[in-house]
Design a protein that fits this description.
It is built from 22 helices and no strands. With 486 residues, it is mostly helical. The longest helix is centred in the last third of the chain and has 18 residues. It is flat, with a radius of gyration of 26 Å. The termini are far apart.
Amino acid sequence: MKSRLLFLALALGLSAPALAEQPLSASDWLSGSVRGPDRESSAWRPGDTPPPGLPGAPGPKPVATTGEVGSVQVTRLGNDNPDAAGLVTPRKAGLPPTLWQGSSSAALAALILRTPARLPAMNALLDRVLVTQLVPPPAEPGASQGTLFLARADRLLDGGAVDRAQALLTAAGPSNPEIFRRLFDIALLKGDEARACEIMNNTPGIAPSFAARIFCLAQTGDWAAAAISLHGAEILGLLDDRQAVLLTHFLDDAYVDGGQMLPPSDRMTPLDFRIHEAIGQPLPTSSLPIAFAHSDLRPMNGWKARLEAAERLARAGAIPPATLRALYSEQKPAASGGVWERAGAMRTLEAALAGGDPSPALPQAFDEFRKAGMADVLAAMIAADLPEGGEGPSAEIATRLRQWQGLPTPVPLVLDPALKSEPVPAPATQQGEALLNAMADIDAGLDGDGPRAGRGLATLRALGLTAEADGAAAQLSLLPVMRADP
């Protein structure tokens, strides 16, 4: 049926009403919000010179070919500044509400997108900064609102924190196209595209791209309109050749048995990723940006794929440690090596913890996780359940894991002397910039620059973030234990 509809659309050369409702887009990347390492998004954004075909673009102006009434775009008036949106209050987050004052939105957005936060203590702090309701910087002449907000959402997505990014974007409302296209990406990554398509189909002018419109028309069962829209988009040059072929395979079931494998794009989007899955050519997520790993967490996937995805996300602090812990105990390992060894070690450790004495199983579990560079993940999962005191290798491991998490132990932690620094005065303004720069300084400690890390810790303390500075200092001091070969 879909084949016949597509043939009919191509033969008649019809145009679809959906095309008139959808604003042109030069980007094949729905939002530009999910980027891989060292990849910069080339998506067009407001403020850039519009590409050909958009209002304001250089070159000849388009000429109407019919007397049809043009599409009407609706914008909700009186929206609050999205830069002020957040999920928690400053008081609950332990941050000053005026953290952004004295800085420009552009400067803060740039810092947010490039500030490293590899240390778990700093990753947790950055997460709080990104989701807190802070007083936005004063508006600048000619600058659009939302620059800082989008940078916050994009940094969460870059780190794989899809659920928190979704909550933050939802708090600002999906009626803004820039916000919606990120929510659309997230829905695709989580397998909830039906809801995103429902919103898009009922809200003219909000679709991220023509490809998204075509996908959603088919998703909601309107294959005829999807085929007609595809043909119209190809005629108008609104789709590149690769995307047109991908959508053709998606709409025309005649290709199912053809055996033609479509090569993945060099710059995979959530939409392309989902279409590859829909046509029976799913792609592995291991080489894609970390946010794509959420697709492997769906129950439809095998246990090993879900374990590997959860481990990747847990390393980045993108999912709660309890999620990975529960997944380890879901089944009995079916093989040996790699993730199976860690699943088996956790299964044995869980049994030992339930029996009240983890000492027989803890050293083996610690060795397995440390070999994979996941000793910090193990600490996050079980440190609170480990007993204090005792003697022997197990007691020593338990003490270090508890100290890594900032939990009390009978043995004092000896801090690295290189992290000591003279106190610094608290900045009176531009505290947000000072905080983000301090986090970058602390991150340098992971590469052996203790004096610079010490200055960053001193700045955190000057900003009143003493507990966060102590946690970062403890983790930097414990790195040799957590990283050493077993």
